[in-house]
Design brief:
The strands form four sheets. The protein has a six-stranded mixed sheet. Strands 1-9-10-8 form a four-stranded mixed sheet. It has helices spanning about 10-20, 35-45, 60-70, 75-80, 105-110, 110-115, 120-125, 130-140, 165-175, 200-205, 210-225, 230-235, 240-255, 300-305, 365-380, 395-400; strands spanning about 5-10, 50, 85-90, 95-100, 145, 180-185, 190-195, 230, 260-265, 270, 285, 325-330, 335-345, 350-355, 385-390, 405. The protein is globular, with a radius of gyration of 22 Å. The protein has 16 helices and 16 strands. It starts with 6 loop residues before the first strand and ends with a strand. It has about 400 residues and is α+β, with helices and mostly antiparallel strands. About 40% of the residues lie in helices and about 20% in strands.
C-alpha cells in the first residue's frame, strides 16, 4: 500500500472490529465470573458510565452482564469500593475508570474552572471559605456524604441536580481531585474521602504527565476500546475538546499508532487501531444498557449498525416511541431489537413493557434468543419470572417463544 492509499474497510468488517474491541467477540465464561475477569473487562472498556436510574439495574452493573453473563455484582463492588482498582471521575459523564488513568486526568482536575459546570465554579468563587471548611471536615473526620452537611436544599423542583451548596462544594473538591469517592451507599449516595486515603500509593506517586501527553494517552485508550472510529468518536470517549483531541489524533497517526482508513458507507474519515482484532464473525447475544460504551454515542450506533436509537426517559410518556428504559438487543453482529424493561422487585417479575424488532429480522430466531437472554437477566436480578406486555411488534413473537403475557 502506498503512503497515500487508504485501506478500505467493508462496513461489516468495521462493525466486527468495533464489537471485538468492546469485548463482544469473546465467548462468555463457562464457569463463575472472577474479579480478575471483571477487572480485565473494565481495562478493555476503560470507561464504565454511571447513571442513577434504577428502574432495571444501576447502569454500571450492566456492561459486565452484557459481556460476561451472570456474575456477582458484589465482585464489581469489590473492584470499586474495596480494592480501589477502579476509581470514579468525570470522563464520559460520571464514570468508573481503571486507576492507571488517574494521572492522565489530572490536567482536567487542575483546570477545573474551565471544565466544571457553573454551580461548582460559583460556589468556589462566592464561598471559598466554606469549600475549605468542607475539605477540612473530610480531612479531620474522615469519609463524608452530602447528607451529612446541614445545608438547605434550594427551593426548586426536581432532585437529581437540585444540589445544596454542601453537595456542590464536595463535587468541586471531587472535580479538582482533592477528594474522591470511596464508595456509594445502597441508596447510591456518594461517600467522599481524601484522594490520598483512597487511591493506591503507586498511582498517587505516579508523575503527572504533560497535558498533551495525557490527552494523547486518553485518545490512545479510546482507540483501543473502539477499534475503528472517527475523530469525533475518539474525542467523545473522554469528552475531549476538539483542538486537543484532533492534535492527539494527528500525533498518534504520525507515530503509527493510528491508521487512517475509509469505511464503506461511513462517509467520513476513520482511524483504525493497528492492533485491533478483525474477527470473521461475532456470535454475541446481549442486552445493552442505554449508557453502554457500545451505544452511548448515537450517531456512531447509526453509522455502524444502521440502528436509530434515542433515550426517551425525558420524553413525555404519550410521545415515547419505544418506551422509558429501552435496551438494544445485540444478536450476532447486529442490533436486531429493543426492549423496554423494568425490574418489578415487589412482584418478582422482569417486565418487558414493550418489544420492537428491526426491519428484516428472522422474528422467531430473534424472539427465541431474546427470550433466553431475558430469562438469564431475570435470574441475575433475582427475579422469578419474565412477563411481556402486548406493546410492540415483537411482543407476540416473544409470547410464542415462551415468555408469558402479563
Amino acid at each position: 500500500m502506498s503512503g497515500t492509499e487508504l485501506e478500505r474497510l467493508p462496513a461489516g468488517v468495521a462493525r466486527r472490529i468495533a464489537l471485538a474491541a468492546q469485548g463482544f467477540a469473546d465467548p462468555r465464561p463457562d464457569g463463575a465470573v472472577s474479579v480478575r475477569q471483571l477487572r480485565r473487562m473494565v481495562e478493555r472498556l476503560a470507561v464504565v458510565q454511571i447513571d442513577s436510574v434504577n428502574v432495571l439495574s444501576r447502569s454500571h452493573y450492566l456492561p459486565a452482564f452484557s459481556r460476561l453473563g451472570a456474575y456477582p455484582r458484589a465482585a464489581l463492588d469489590e473492584l470499586t469500593a474495596r480494592r480501589h482498582a477502579v476509581f470514579e471521575y468525570w470522563a464520559h459523564e460520571a464514570s468508573f475508570l481503571p486507576v492507571r488513568l488517574q494521572p492522565s486526568l489530572r490536567w482536567r482536575m487542575a483546570a477545573a474552572e474551565e471544565h466544571a459546570w457553573g454551580n461548582m465554579v460559583r460556589v468556589q468563587r462566592e464561598r471559598p471559605g466554606y469549600v475549605a471548611e468542607v475539605l477540612d471536615r473530610v480531612r479531620e473526620n474522615g469519609p463524608l456524604k452530602a447528607s451529612d452537611l446541614a445545608e438547605p436544599r434550594p427551593d426548586r423542583p426536581g432532585a437529581m441536580w437540585n444540589w445544596h451548596d454542601g453537595k456542590i462544594a464536595l463535587e468541586w473538591l471531587f472535580f479538582t481531585g482533592e477528594i474522591t469517592a470511596t464508595h456509594r451507599t445502597t441508596a447510591f449516595e456518594k461517600v467522599y474521602d481524601l484522594t490520598e486515603r483512597v487511591l493506591p500509593p503507586d498511582v498517587l506517586q505516579s508523575p503527572t504527565p504533560d497535558p498533551a501527553d495525557a490527552v494523547r494517552e486518553l485518545v490512545r485508550t479510546a482507540a483501543r476500546a473502539l477499534g475503528v472510529a472517527t475523530e469525533r468518536d475518539l474525542r467523545d470517549y473522554f469528552r475531549l475538546r476538539p483542538a486537543a483531541g484532533r492534535q492527539a489524533v494527528i500525533e498518534l497517526a504520525e507515530a503509527g499508532e493510528l491508521h487512517p482508513v475509509e469505511v464503506v458507507g461511513w462517509g467520513t474519515p476513520a482511524w483504525l487501531d493497528p492492533a485491533a482484532r478483525r474477527p470473521r464473525w461475532v456470535r454475541a447475544r446481549a442486552l445493552l444498557s442505554p449508557f453502554d460504551s457500545l451505544v452511548w454515542e448515537r450517531p456512531r450506533v447509526e453509522r455502524i449498525f444502521g440502528f436509530r436509537y434515542r433515550l426517551e426517559i425525558y420524553t413525555p410518556a404519550a410521545k415515547r416511541v419505544h418506551g422509558y428504559y429501552v435496551l438494544p438487543f445485540l444478536l450476532g453482529d447486529r442490533l436486531v431489537a429493543r426492549v423496554d424493561l423494568k425490574a418489578d422487585r415487589q412482584a418478582g417479575v422482569l417486565r418487558v413493557q414493550a418489544a420492537h424488532g428491526e426491519e428484516g429480522i428472522d422474528r422467531p430466531l430473534v424472539a427465541a434468543a431474546l427470550a433466553d437472554e431475558l430469562r438469564l437477566l431475570a435470574d441475575w436480578l433475582e427475579l422469578d419470572d419474565v412477563g411481556v406486555a402486548g406493546r410492540g411488534d415483537l411482543a407476540p413473537d416473544l409470547a410464542r417463544a415462551g415468555v408469558s403475557l402479563r
